[in-house]
Amino acid sequence: MWTPTAPRAPAMRPDLFALYADHLDTLKQRADEALQRGGFDALVVPSGRLHFQFFDDRDYPFAVNPQFKAWLPLVRVPDSWLVYQPGQRPKVIYLQPFDYWHVVPSAPSGDWVEHMDVVIIRTAEEALQHLPKQVARCAILGEPQSALGEFVPNNPEAVVAYLEYHRAFKTPYEIEKMRAASRIGARAHRAAERAFRAGASEFGIHLAYCQAAGQDANDLPYSNIVALNEHGAVLHYTDRDRLPPKPVRSFLIDAGAANDGYACDITRTYSQDTGDEFQAMIDAVDRAQLAMCDQVRNGFDYRQLHLDAHLSLSRILKEFGLITVTPEVAVETGVSSAFFPHGIGHGIGLQVHDVAGFAESDRGGTLPKPQGHPYLRLTRTLAPGMVVTIEPGIYFIDMLLEQLKDRGLGPSVDWGRVDAFRPFGGIRIEDDVVCTDDAPINLTREAFAS
Q1: CATH superfamily, region 16-168
Q2: Less Cβ around it within 10 Å: N or C end of the chain?
Q3: Torsions phi, psi for 254 (to 5 deg)
Q4: Residue numbers belonging to the annotated binding site
Q5: Which residues does the annotation place in the binding site for Mn(2+)?
Q6: What pTM was estimated for this model as a whole?
């Protein structure tokens, strides 16, 4: 298994061509084992197909099949295919249609071309001439809409379970792609903070972010969360008001960026008054978050990291006078969950919420979530090559706080202090962190420091 190393010095540039060749060798080894386990001779992966909106002639934004983009950095090539048979060079069936209505994909180029046989087709149906003859011997991984003739995705469980489990372990090539995505995200986050300080609306901040990233809604790995004041208490707030509130008190932004199909996921929170008590709480969460990032170590159970986060955040709640009970009691009784209702994070890579977060092994099975913590997205033990997000938060969500009263836990909270912080919405700090055999690599902090 690959072992990540410490961050490179800024002057050193990685040899992406060599890293991609090694990455491809790793994918072949994984595919060989997955096919053997499933009893198949070939791996066939469609890139995906455009979907038309119901009762309309407009298509939804294209989202490439993650199993396809794992092999090659192509994200805008619908109706293309990847074919791999053990012992043979991978084959890419690349649709480059005659089309004067839309931009046609450019000729194949990049590090991947020299490692694969590339077949250009002009219509989607031409792919049938180049797909394996023995359809029954193929593991076809994709969504049902990708079916072409007899090539209907079967997504065999043994093959998918193996490939998705091992996707948690990123190759050096993948780490470099995620590092580049983090640099884009950090640049855009800086632009968003400047727009906030200049008095922009949520929508205006969003536009500033997209401009700085050079990516719009169809390029970003997820929809930007840009929240001012109380909107920071809505975990997935995406409405984006066109006018700023009066007064502006706080700003929470959860926004990522993409690079050749790989994602970063970054969250930051700011107070308008950098000397007020809310900024002090942000700083306290930031310090706690850095300590949590340092827990991303080989052999550490991610579930325990989540539980430790609850205790750490409860100490902050106690420090700022928001709870009247001890931090330990706040965790035991579920009071902490009213202020921190989501998981500490998730795997990240080709998908923002990467797959197999609950996988017991590469043969399947499920690792349970801690009792009373239904929203945790990762329950595996950390190992070198895994990349995870660490995103603790403290929020002032009325419906969850009212439930504490309904459960007889109202005396555990200082409601006057809650009222003082409620107009600020909430706090979340999120970084992307690589597990290694030694100290973790924080891709996000590295990007902000560059």
Answers
A1: Creatinase/prolidase N-terminal domain (3.40.350.10)
A2: N
A3: -120, 105
A4: 254, 265, 346, 391, 430
A5: 254, 265, 346, 391, 430
A6: 0.95
